Amino acid sequence: MSFQSKQYGKYLLRLARPDDNDGIRAIFESGSFAGGLNVQFLRGERPLSSFEADGGRAYILVAEDTEAQRLIAVGGAVVRTEYLSGAPSECAYLTGLKIHQDYRGRLSFISRAYGFMGEMVSDCAATYTTILDGNTGVRKMLEKRRKNMPEYHYLGHYTTFCLGRGKKLMEVEKNVTDGFDTLLKTHFSKKDLTPCRPDYRGFGRKDFYSVRGSDGEIAACCFIGDQSATKYYKMCSYGGVYRLASHLPTALFGYPAFPKEGERIISGVISYLYVRGKDASLCKSFLLSAARASGFPLLLWGGFDGDPLCEAVGRLKTVKYGSRLYEVLWNGSAAGRISGKIGMEAALL
Questions:
Q1: Phi and psi for 195 in degrees, rounded to 5?
Q2: Nearest C-alpha neighbor of 53 from the set 215, 214, 229, 196
């Protein structure tokens, strides 16, 4: 679809242009995740490039206040090749709507943007999105069926774990990827929404860590990437019990160290985590050892609830936050494509 811009009073809805980077960045910087951990998710100096890094193509819509000559909202979809029922398929991830703090609650026309987005991704096999547990206002708005809006079909819960810098419990190989391509086709392909390509720029500059069994095959592995060129987090403030915890030497006890308020969070992201036999003991030893070898003070990994690896990682000393996963169904469709085991990677959300 070739989208034509739409005017709603003084507001203009259109596709983003390269000269919109400053305006989009200002929207991201105006808001944060509310709650005990008040964190900003930022996409750097060139947010359009950041969106594009997460997939093969991106459709990014912006809303502009033509009188004030400023961008006031941004949202869109990133399309990438992922597994569905074992087959590579083009899937669209809705990135979530960001509205500048000054305009929240004032944009009644935004629901129409979803209809336009549905047309732009109509050639995709599936569309999905995630919403943070604590974002109750957005959840209530999207879970209720509304005119001009798609149906948000709840699939389940997704947990992101924050690990500390780890410790060396075993020797790990670095960047010896022999056997990973086979794992991608025989193991990861069985999980819906697993990216078929581990080379998307959004994974960041990454290294591959592994251990092998006596048979020479991979027993455990993962990539650990530095995404700071395209996305990162900034700690704004702490509330509740986290305010007290942020002053404690948590790293001495194996937990992640809490960054200072106003500080950019230095972190790595784990993707394609595999542990043969879902062995919890092996998972612990490998993950802590890979974390130490990576040198990052903080690592993120996400998994869909019900995955045995979530239980294994949950036994480690972590800070975690949750999201709800939805399949987005357009035009009254009741036929969802996403089912069974879920393998989406936190690095591309």
A1: -60, 135
A2: 229
The pTM for the full model equals 0.94
pLDDT, tens digit, 9 for 90 and up, residues 43-55? 999 999 999 999 9
Q: CA–CA distance from 113 to each of 6, 101, 256 (Å)?
A: 9, 19, 39
Give, for 300, the enclosing helix (H) or strand (E). Answer: strand 299-304
What's the one-letter identity of residue 304? Answer: F
Work out whether strand 299-304 and strand 268-275 pair parallel, antiparallel, or are unpaired.
Answer: parallel
Q: What is the pLDDT of residue 283?
A: 98
CB-count burial class (<10 Å; 0-12, 13-18, 19+) for 315: exposed
Confidence of residue 27 (pLDDT cuts 50, 70, 90): very high
- Three-state DSSP class for 106? coil
Question: Residue 318's closest CA among 309, 306, 330?
Answer: 309
Q: CB count, 10 Å around CB of 10?
A: 10
The confidence band for 104, taking pLDDT boundaries of 50, 70 and 90, is confident
- C-alpha span between 285 and 296 (Å, rounded): 17
Please, are residues 186 and 242 in contact by the beta-carbon 8 Å criterion? no
User: Of 98, 93, 104, which is closest to residue 29 (Cα–Cα)?
Assistant: 98
- Asked if 316 and 288 touch (Cβ cutoff 8 Å), the reply is yes
* Close Cβ partners of 103 (under 8 Å, ≥ 6 residues apart): 65, 72, 73
CA 44 – CA 239 distance, rounded (Å): 26
Nearest Cα residue to 184 out of 277, 271, 268, 279 = 271
Q: 271 pLDDT band (50/70/90 cuts)?
A: very high
